[in-house]
Amino acid sequence: MIRSTRRWSAFAGTMWRASPWRCAAVLLTLAIDVVGQPAFAVLLAGFTDAALRGDPAGAGVHAVLAASAWAAVSQSRGVRNQLRNDVRDRVGHLVTEDVMRLTATEPRVDHLEDPRTLDQVDRVSAKGYTIADTVWAALEVAAISLTVALTLVVMSTVSPALLLVLPVILITLWLNKVGQDGVRRAVETADEPLRVGANLLRLTHDPRVAGELRVTGAGGAVLDEHERQWATASRVLDRAEARAGVLLAAGWLVYVLAIGAGLVWAATQIDSGRVGAGDLVMILAIARQQQLSVQMAVNGFSRMSEGVVTAAAYDEVRATVAPTARQAAGEHDGIGGRLHRGIALRDLSFTYPGTSRPVLANLDLELPAGTMVALVGAHGSGKTSVIKLLTGMHAPTSGRIEVDGRPLDTMAPEAWRARVAAGFQDFVRLQALARESVGVGDLTAVDDLPRVEGAVRDAGAEDVVAALPEGLRTQLGTTFGGVDLSGGQWQKVALARGHMRQDPLLVVLDEPTAALDPLSESEVYTRQLSYARAMARRSGTVTVVVSHRFSTVRMADLIIVLDRGAVVEQGDHDHLMAAGGTYARLYTLQRDSYVGPASDATGRAVMNDEH
Ligand SMILES: Nc1ncnc2c1ncn2[C@@H]1O[C@H](COP(=O)(O)OP(=O)(O)OP(=O)(O)O)[C@@H](O)[C@H]1O
Q1: Spatial CA neighbour of 415 closest among 504, 534, 532, 531
Q2: CA 285 – ligand 1 centroid, Å
Q3: Which of 51, 284, 471, 562 could bridge 381 with an S-S bond, Cβ 3.0-4.6 Å?
Q4: At what angle do helices 518-539 and 487-498 cross, to 10 degrees?
Q5: What long-range pairs does 467-475 form, CB within 8 A, spacing at least 24?
């Protein structure tokens, strides 16, 4: 309760900051509403009584005042709608920006691998404005409650019995609330099928999958599944809306019966003189106002429920994503200029967020400073997961990583990341000027042309740049009318981006040549290896390579063989070939698939000739 109060006052604070004068103006219009409505009813009664008394001056004054009161009420409602929408848009923008900042700047990526968090991020980004709606609705409901209270006081001057309308109003609102709670639960339930449906729909116009969808003929099935998910969501929502509608109608029936009974009673009292004609007119006017007020409260409650769901999602995103960001912000760097001992994995296990199966179990590894290490293993054995942990994208579930004996989790992830250079198989096609697409590998040097040219050279991407019509000034990608590149060319640009980092302590190359032809691949690896050796001499840099290309792997100082998340062998090529285990089997298999069975027991000459 306290947490929820704090949350909503924080939202109210955000709205105030978004536009103080608009918020103040909305509060003023609400105050006009609260006072204006009962005043109108009283003035109308005064007009009726004066007219019946034959007092034209009194009737005229009351008529003018009543008209002014009503004009002020209706005018203020129009102005309020406009101001409310302005603030709502601003708050929506602020909330979306906050969530995007949290998710984009969070040093680790655990949240991006967790479908639940992604769902919540989607919801908050798309519906952030509903939080403002909820605050407005809450204020409106508070104002309406005051209005109703004032009108009841006015009615009670005719007869205290008319106060019985209050419980009736509460019953009407309660029935509406029950219906709206059901709608809110339905919105939560429908979220998943709607998200799945939206993702499927996106697939149909995603150029990256368009070819495969056509070749496999799966386009129709994707649309059918989208329809199915959409129908599931609609069914849930329609049912809840229908139930809410029935409950609301029942509430109105109770109200109409009660107010009707009050009017009939008042009419029967006119002859006896206990109730005047003005009183009857006033009760009628108040009944009409209360009807509008209850309707507005009902609308307010329904707007509130969506904002409550969004606010809960917002809280969840902040709770899930923010802790490591705060931790990172609170720490300082303290990473030395060069590696002396190296990097170690100590009894490290890892399970992806939102899953229960460990993908790495109890790894104990030493990656000595100045070495090149190759990770080998079948698909899914955990190579990329090790890379993600080494680069600080995820934190180990248990155990730790040490850099020269210092636990990685005591360093700010950004500071560590600044000393890591990387080339990935899932590279980004950054559609910008070629020099920017490379330069962002080190934002501090994005405008440093000699650095960019050096990175292009180190990565062996000069041929790609040479083929561009305006060299490094060429716009890449078709989105902004630039030149499109082949998969291999994009990958070389990504590799060059990785080379922007100067003085890395860790270089990771996770299948960085997967999109290249064998000749380019061989050339890139040759350059990468000499780069790795140069870095090793300069900074004791550790280079970790993930590759299925054994002629590269064999050159590593240390080869680590993974199988289902565990280390099954490690050593250099000669050691592992002599051991005759998994590595020797995989190596021989690949060698034979290229050139047929070899007589050389280690296969060294054969593989070297091959590439
Ligand atoms: N984001 C994720 N969420 C849940 N499980 C994942 C995720 N990414 C990978 N996995 C699982 O972790 C295991 C190891 O995957 P990983 O990508 O590390 O293997 P790999 O050896 O690099 O495979 P490949 O050679 O195919 O790239 C696999 O069983 C995979 O299904």
Answers
A1: 504
A2: 69
A3: 562
A4: 0
A5: 468/434, 471/434, 472/433, 472/434, 472/435, 472/438, 473/433, 473/434, 473/435, 474/433, 474/434, 475/431, 475/432, 475/433, 475/434
Tokens 């219906």 locate to 179
Q: Are strands 420-424 and 506-510 parallel, antiparallel or unpaired?
A: parallel
Tell which atom from ligand 1 comes closest to the C-alpha of 355: 4
Nearest Cα neighbor of 559 from 584, 588, 532, 592 is: 584
Number of structural domains (the chain) is: 1
SS3 433: strand
Residue 431 lies in a domain: no
Ligand 1 atom closest to Cα of residue 385: 18
Q: How far away, in angstroms, is 547 Cα from ligand 1 center?
A: 15
Q: Do the domain assignments include residue 589?
A: no
Could you identify the atom of ligand 1 that is nearest to the CA of residue 357? Answer: 5
For 377, the enclosing helix (H) or strand (E) is strand 372-377
Task: State in Å: Cα 591 to ligand 1 middle.
Answer: 26
Task: Report which protein residue has its CA nearest ligand 1's atom 16.
Answer: 382
Which atom of ligand 1 lies closest to the CA of 565? 14
Amino acid at 469: P
- The CATH number given to whatever domain includes residue 30 is 1.20.1560.10
Ligand 1 centre to CA of 352 (Å) is: 9
| Residue having the nearest C-alpha atom to atom 6 of ligand 1 | 352
Question: In terms of DSSP bridges, do strands 542-546 and 506-510 run parallel, antiparallel, or are they unpaired?
Answer: parallel
* Rounded Cα distance, 465 and 471, in Å: 5
Bigger pLDDT: 512 or 558?
Answer: 558
Q: Which of 376, 384, 393, 567 has most ligand 1 atoms within 8 Å of its beta carbon, as the pocket-test mutant?
A: 384
The protein residue with its alpha carbon nearest to ligand 1, atom 12, reads 359
- Whose CA is closest to atom 4 on ligand 1? 352
Integer distance in angstroms from the first to the last C-alpha of the chain? 68
User: Radius of gyration over alpha carbons of the chain, in Å?
Assistant: 35
Measured on CA atoms in the order 485, 491, 495, 500, is the torsion positive or negative? Answer: positive
Residue 238 lies in a domain: yes
Q: For residue 56, give its domain range.
A: 2-327
Give ipTM to 2 decimals: 0.97
Q: Give per-residue pLDDT as tens, 522-565.
A: 777 788 888 888 888 989 999 999 988 887 888 889 999 999 99
* Site to substitute for ligand 1 among 381, 387, 394, 425, most atoms within 8 A of C-beta: 381
Residue 121 lies in a domain: yes
- The predicted model gives 555-583 an average pLDDT of 92
Q: Are 360 and 386 in contact (CB under 8 A)?
A: yes
